[in-house]
Amino acid sequence: MKLKYLIFISVVSWLFAIKANAAGQVEVLHWWTSSGEAKSVKVLKQMMEQQGDSWKDFAVAGGGGESAMTVLKMRAVSGNPPTAAQLKGHDIQEWGRLGFLTSLDAVAQQEHWDKVLPPVVANIMKYNNHYVAVPINVHRVNWLWVNPKVFKAAGATVPTTLAEFFVAADKIKAAGFIALAHGGQPWQDATLFESIALAVLGSADYRKAFVDLDMAVINSDKMVEVFQQFKRMKTYIDPQAEGRHWNSATEMVIDGQAAMQFMGDWAKGEFAQAGERPGIDYLCVPAPGTQYQFTFNIDSLAFFKLKGTEADNIAQHDLAKILLTPYFQKVFNLNKGSIPVRLDMDMSTFDQCALDSMQAFKQASLSGDLVPSFSQNLATTADVQSAIVDVVSEFFNKTDPDPILAPSRLAQVIKSAI
Ligand code: GAL
Q1: Where is the signal peptide (predicted)?
Q2: What φ, ψ does residue 84 adopt, rounded to 5°?
Q3: What per-residue confidence (pLDDT) applies to 308?
Q4: Which helix (H) or strand (E) holds 393?
Q5: Percent of the chain whose pLDDT exceeds 70
Q6: For residue 383, how many other CB atoms are within 10 A of its CB?
């Protein structure tokens, strides 16, 4: 009896050992560290663990991902890349060209990605016609986040144009509130600049300037006006903004210190985490003057060639597969503030901000007003993008910058980065 029992125990432990060995590990590099972002990424971790795989979190704090990219380069160059990393737009092509990324075509075919994804999105995920990355969501960048109680207390009206923005901001400032919550980091300066550029230039010239890099638009009178409006924004920001993280600025709108923030809809994840209700405790409205336009930011994970075990390779495919399942698309995006990237999702559980975003996305793609966000690295190469961000941020942080000189400086640095 005792022997039988021992045999039974050893067989069971042997089976468990096989199962444990079969389970692989994924290591995922990302910069989702704010409370809304962390909640979103936890869904992925849980889903992987439910499959029996283990999750090694590789979070590098810093909105916009600059620090994460530096760390990724170091790891890849030393021959030890993670399973997957948050990479966007042109960066996917660059890493593909360097030979670091692995093909996901087997998963893509099995899961019919070509059918469920919009072709524009699918193309960004492919290098040399092979899937090497998986999209997760669509973020709209040109949003303004509003605290309606502050507006009410100041007797101000929620702005729909830049002119109305300045009227409202003056009233809010006079009533003793901070009109504009802003984080003084270069990528956030660029995020603000981008929404103003979209309003002033319109979608066609925005595209010419930041996608086609057309010098006639970059160095134009209209661009002078963009810098003029941008400069005015500075007067509505508090002196402590320098270095502030984007989610701390969102916090200022949540707790009523500040009235507004220009930020992509990842900000909604922070409102949601604080228990705030859209349309009641906070409002999401298009950035002034950009009602029918949509600057898109698509988060995606790119997948690296691995030296790991067979189990790790299987886990890598499990991860790729999970990202586009309807369940993950729903739960992740509800927490993250974005809209799903799959075309066939049931949107009934999403809130008004997400429904507005979806509607704007569809309309803008028909009208030519769907444009890639340069501040989020979707419009151009990393070199050109960082050149633009440098000029914009340097301008914004000078004591009395000259908007007339700024466009020629912008043209000059873009030319040298192309
Ligand atoms: C963006 C990213 C978003 C959001 C934001 C702030 O680059 O695409 O998903 O997380 O940074 O961290």
Answers
A1: 1-22
A2: -150, 155
A3: 81
A4: helix 382-397
A5: 95
A6: 14
Q: Whose CA is nearest to atom 3 of ligand 1?
A: 266
- For residue 277 the two structure tokens come to 């209700």
Q: State how beta strands 84-86 and 300-303 pair.
A: antiparallel
Q: Which atom of ligand 1 lies nearest, measured to the CA of 297?
A: 8
Name which of 174, 178, 170, 176 is nearest 147 in CA terms. Answer: 178
Q: Helices (H) and strands (E) in the chain — how many of each?
A: 19, 15
Q: Among candidates 303, 302, 285, 296, which has minimal Cα distance to 339?
A: 296
* Ligand 1 pocket test target in 138, 297, 332, 335 with most atoms within 8 Å of CB: 297
pLDDT at 18 over 50: no
Amino acid found at 3: L
126 Cα–ligand 1 center, Å: 21
N- to C-terminal Cα distance for the chain?
A: 78
Report the percent of the chain where pLDDT is more than 90: 93
Report yes or no: 329 and 354 within 8 Å, Cβ to Cβ: no
Q: DSSP H helical segments within 244-287, as ranges?
A: 246-254, 267-273
What is the rounded CA–CA span in Å between residue 385 and residue 232?
A: 23
Q: What is the DSSP string of 5-69?
A: HHHHHHHHHHHHHHHHHH--EEEEEE---SHHHHHHHHHHHHHHHHTT-EEEEEE---GGGHHHH
CA dihedral (208, 209, 214, 215) in degrees, to 10, reads 150
Q: Residue 7's pLDDT is what? A: 53
Q: Distance between CA 235 and CA 393 in Å, rounded? A: 15
pLDDT surpassing 80 at residue 141: yes
Q: For ligand 1, atom 7, which residue shows the shortest CA distance?
A: 64
**Is the model's pTM score more than 0.85?**
yes
Burial class (CB in 10 A: 0-12, 13-18, 19+), 28: buried
Q: How many other β-carbons are positioned within 10 Å of the β-carbon of residue 417? A: 17
